[in-house]
DNA sequence: AGCATCTTCCTTGGTTCGTCTCATGAATGA
DNA sequence: TCATTCATGAGACGAACCAAGGAAGATGCT
């Protein structure tokens, strides 16, 4: 039956692929494992060998789809000389445009949303939800921001990160769930820009204005 | 067994009540209809007589929990003389405070989120999701706004309503799903205020600055 | 290299659990 | 009286999950 170790990885990949398209096409709970199995050409047991259970499939699909956001985190963590405000803005804008142009991403985000709800309901710990990871990322970012520039009025790093990540997730979920109400590309970008300029007092971003120089 | 018509309504109410607490306590998919039935003291058949299916329970729970938002829509629709900006702001702020002080609301919002995902996945029409209704409300609001005051820069009624409702839903879902990251009461309110003042050019809102007086 | 053995990968069959249906019946309300 | 409403209980059906087995690569030993 099986020929090589790579063959096994290939069937796992095929299972994941079939699951993703079927989930996107028919909805998670309308798809049975049997259906996925016959789509690939294996039996149910094969799925349970490679993945723990049906939710494990969802987890794996999500992990495959996390690269765009890891990229976001990576690009934000390495400090460059440009203003932090415009930097965050650019990264998020680019992310939004990439999502708009990749139809697969909508299904992936739907998977993440469903998984987030299931994880928070089942695990009391609710570790590693999508929103939580995004939130952690932004806490780091805004903590770094707080040292360089000043956050306006009542904001501090954590509250700013909270509302900012909530906004991002709100935009993404609305875009993923509703058919064509929110447009990430012009509208979401503009909103992000507005919020950022509201959170960060831009005048402090000038490097050469620091007194100890 | 059954005594009167009111008794029947009472058991339906009890079923709904038990379902809501169990869903909140253990998570939707971990709760079986059998469990709900014995909690009330009936059998599964009784649940299926009053509600179409398990998702019907969720729908009914959501409908019971929609009053706060209907109230929001109602208060926003009747025009008072105050500035539209401050009016929206006040209503949303009051909503946020009410939610923060009512622990039941978190579970209800979780129900709405789960239902929204299921509805968009199963029904192609995805009619009457929570986010869609909220979006519709804000479209009306901002359309009315557009006639009185001016929306800033690139915004028009629909795009403003889209991003605004997305933000609200983002805040609500984050608050409902994560344990204590987002605080609606000071942080969410401040964000809403910031966004509103960014969307609406406030200078036009002064009633007494109009030339025809 | 060649054999034995282990491990990996997958099938088959079966168990369990949950939703939903249906036939039945009791009490009510007209 | 008698149809309707409310509810029971058994059972059909489907789907997730489990366990034993087996076949073929992978691994170790000489």
TrEMBL record, chains A, B:
One family name in Pfam for this protein: TetR_N
Transcription regulation among keywords: yes
Superkingdom of source: Bacteria
GO MF annotation terms: DNA-binding transcription factor activity; transcription cis-regulatory region binding
PROSITE patterns given in the database record: HTH_TETR_1 (PS01081), HTH_TETR_2 (PS50977)
Domain HTH tetR-type: 9-69
InterPro entries xrefs: DNA-bd_HTH_TetR-type_CS, Homeodomain-like_sf, HTH-type_TetR-like_transc_reg, HTH_TetR
Keywords, comma-separated and alphabetical: DNA-binding, Transcription, Transcription regulation
Feature: DNA-binding region: 32-51
Entry keyword Zinc-finger: no
Name of the protein in its database record: TetR family transcriptional regulator
Lineage, broadest ranks: Bacteria, Pseudomonadati, Pseudomonadota, Alphaproteobacteria, Hyphomicrobiales
């Amino acid at each position: 039956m099986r020929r090589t170790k790579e063959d096994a990885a290939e069937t796992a990949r095929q299972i994941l692929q079939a699951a993703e398209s079927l989930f996107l096409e028919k909805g998670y709970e309308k798809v049975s494992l049997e259906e996925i199995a016959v789509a690939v050409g294996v039996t149910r047991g094969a799925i349970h060998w490679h993945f723990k259970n049906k939710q494990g499939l969802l987890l794996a699909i999500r992990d495959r789809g996390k690269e765009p956001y890891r990229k976001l985190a990576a690009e934000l963590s390495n400090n460059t000389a440009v203003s932090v405000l415009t930097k965050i803005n650019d990264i998020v804008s680019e992310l939004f445009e990439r999502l708009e142009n990749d139809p697969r991403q909508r299904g992936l985000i739907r998977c993440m949303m469903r998984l987030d709800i299931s994880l928070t309901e089942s695990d009391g710990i609710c570790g590693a939800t999508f929103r939580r990871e995004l939130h952690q990322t932004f806490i780091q970012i805004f903590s770094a921001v707080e040292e360089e520039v000043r956050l306006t009025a009542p904001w501090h790093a954590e509250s700013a990160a909270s509302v900012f990540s909530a906004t991002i997730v709100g935009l993404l979920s609305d875009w993923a769930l509703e058919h064509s109400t929110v447009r990430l590309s012009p509208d979401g970008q503009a909103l992000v820009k507005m919020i950022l300029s509201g959170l960060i007092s831009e005048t402090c971003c000038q490097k050469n204005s620091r007194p100890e120089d």
